[in-house]
Amino acid sequence: MPELPEVEHLRRSLDPVLVGARLHTVTVRRRSVVECGAHDGRTATSAQRLSEALLVDRTIVATHRRGKQMALEADNGRVLVVQLGMTGSMTIEADAPPRGMEARHRHVLWDFSPAAPAGVRWRLAFRDPRRFGGLTAYPSLQALHGAWKSLGPDALTISATDFANALLRTRRPIKAALLDQALVAGVGNIYADESLHLAGIDPRTRCDRIDGDRVS
């Protein structure tokens, strides 16, 4: 199940290939995984809205991440957020398309040319067998940051002191608090269990009864 470390690893793996890449066409095999979000042109057709949401004919200028969400920023300012859910993935297909089970559940496929090497055309595939993930479009980075305000501090950037203070302000069981993305963004079931085991803390323990030194 992808959590913050897996999503950050994906972002760092895709960043060298996608930044500077031009997305040419897109094939949407399952429309329900795409949320077009806000759109500026009221007269645009649904196909045009979908194409714009999925950054067709745009160049990727940056990648971003907050918690378990990764975002692709295009040269026109629009942003596409990738949420992997339980079984989602994004992969670069530089060779022949996959076969068998690997070819199934590839819901969105882009044809793109990377900045280097020049003259090649590859595919970017969003795959999600169980469909708990999806793609959400935003009209700008500012709009994305507004949406991300519902998330707490990123688990890689929050200080030990701020983390301890946030936990001590709630009476919830420690595991429930760790899974609350509004308290700290990026921790899921697996890493919550492993961190509590390493710290020797019962997951049912109330947060306000945990010594601050054990939290940090």
Q: Short description, anyone?
A:
Helix content is 28%, strand content 25%. The chain contains seven helices and nine strands, in the order H-E-E-H-E-E-E-E-E-E-E-H-H-H-H-H. The model has no long low-confidence stretch (mean pLDDT 92).
Describe this structure in words.
It is a single chain. The chain has 216 residues and is of the alpha+beta class. Helix content is 28%, strand content 25%. It has helices at residues 4-18, 46-53, 141-147, 160-168, 174-179, 189-199, 212-215, and strands at residues 22-28, 34-35, 58-66, 69-74, 79-83, 89-93, 106-113, 122-127, 134-138. The chain has a 9-stranded mixed β-sheet with strand order 2-9-5-4-3-1-7-8-6.
Q: On the 0-100 scale, what is the average pLDDT?
A: 92
Kindly state the number of beta strands. Answer: 9
Order of helices and strands: HEEHEEEEEEEHHHHH
Percentage of residues in strands: 15-25%
Q: State the shape.
A: elongated
Low-confidence stretches are: none
What is the spatial order of strands in the main beta sheet? 2-9-5-4-3-1-7-8-6
**Helix fraction bin:** 25-40%
Number of helical regions: 7
Class per helix and strand makeup: alpha+beta
Biggest sheet descriptor: 9 strands, mixed
Termini, distance in Å? 25 Å
What is the rounded Rg?
A: 19 Å
